[in-house]
Amino acid sequence: MREWKAFLTAAAVLATAVGSAQAQTLKTVQDRGSLVCGVNPGLDGFAVKDASGQWSGFDVDFCRALATAIFNDPAKVQYVPLSAEERFGALKDKKIDVLSRNSTWTLGRENDFGIVFAGVTYYDGQGFLVPKSRNITSALELDGSKVCVQPGTTTEPNFTDYFDANHMKSEVVHVSSAAEMVKAYQDGKCNVLTTDASGLYAMRLGLAKPGDSMILPDVISKEPLGPVVRQDDMQWFNIVKWVNFAMINAEELGVDSKTIDDALKSQKPAVKRLVGTEGDFGKPLGLSNDWAANVIRKVGNYAEVFDRNVGANSKLGIPRNLNQLWNNGGIQYAPPIR
Ligand SMILES: N[C@@H](CCC(=O)N[C@@H](CS)C(=O)NCC(=O)O)C(=O)O
């Protein structure tokens, strides 16, 4: 009997210790007064730092949304630019709280680094950019190409698989950044760029004559891009996951930064739960109940963030395609808030 009591007490102490060890990131962020977000060093539409030191882009807006959910202030973010090769190690080593850097969700990455993807903010796929002067219309005509590719990405193994499967040879040219990739292509060191289609749109903007190059129609892989956290903190994982879902649900419910005041007066149950006028959906996450309303007001819903950074209202002009909502022909689908 006494042994049992001692065992139960020890188990309770352990459970408390594990419980608190699993919920440190939010507290660390709150105590620090800012979120530390890992981002791309420079990719048009996704993460760009301007001359005054301001960051913007699709992935940057996710950092801003997360900071808003926590602090009601999108400016409370410290950005850490990370190369493809260093990003997951930086997350594992706790140099950042979250990674928001055009990163593809794969099993190997979760296994190898003790990390977990919190959702998909952008469904992408790998493509090829070629000079129009090559008169190529399909990726199957790329045999013998000099291909620029960045190590530490899913891009290289995908491209190797594709060329092998189609019995095509290539000369691989390794580059260490998007800027270097553009330069190598313009200098004629390679005559094909390959990466996520979104990255190709971004890099084409960096070319002296964007109109002289084209993106081939072939998409050779699945690249579900999303934010990443460590596996040791369920509360933090849930916060990051639901910030994404709230922005998608907001689009589905027609709530955006311009209509948020009306939404706060809405009598529709789903809108009330989203903006926090009904239910108790913030406190269990460690947030206030109006966290999603604050995110929508200060950063926007999914459509607003997509359109201004990479979509119709941006320089990139990428069609929504797979990133349309599920009820509008795409596969963006968020579980309900209820
Ligand atoms: N989604 C792929 C590719 C991500 C990636 O790093 N792409 C490159 C080429 S667009 C990039 O963003 N480079 C920017 C840089 O490191 O400067 C992955 O997760 O491996």
List the helices and strands and how they pair.
Layout: H1 2-21, H2 25-32, E1 35-39, E2 48-49, E3 55-56, H3 58-71, E4 77-81, H4 87-92, E5 98-99, H5 107-113, E6 115-117, E7 122-124, E8 126-131, E9 145-149, H6 155-165, E10 170-174, H7 178-186, E11 192-196, H8 197-205, E12 213-215, E13 223-225, E14 228-230, H9 234-252, H10 260-265, H11 269-275, H12 291-298, H13 302-309
Parallel strand pairs: 1-4, 1-5, 9-10, 9-11
Antiparallel strand pairs: 2-3, 6-14, 7-13, 8-11, 8-12
Helix pairs in contact: 3-9, 3-12
Bound molecules: glutathione (GSH).
Q: Which strand order do you get reading across the main beta sheet?
A: 10-9-11-8-12
- The best one-word shape is globular
End-to-end CA span: 44 Å
Secondary-structure content class:
alpha/beta
What does this structure look like?
By secondary structure, this protein is α/β, with parallel strands linked by helices. It has helices at residues 2-21, 25-32, 58-71, 87-92, 107-113, 155-165, 178-186, 197-205, 234-252, 260-265, 269-275, 291-298, 302-309, and strands spanning 35-39, 48-49, 55-56, 77-81, 98-99, 115-117, 122-124, 126-131, 145-149, 170-174, 192-196, 213-215, 223-225, 228-230. The strands form 5 sheets. Strands 10-9-11-8-12 form a 5-stranded mixed β-sheet, with helices on both faces. Strands 4-1-5 form a 3-stranded parallel β-sheet. Strand 9, helix 6 (155-165) and strand 10 form a beta-alpha-beta unit. Helix 3 crosses helix 9 and helix 3 (58-71) packs across helix 12 (291-298). The two termini are 44 Å apart. The structure holds glutathione (GSH).
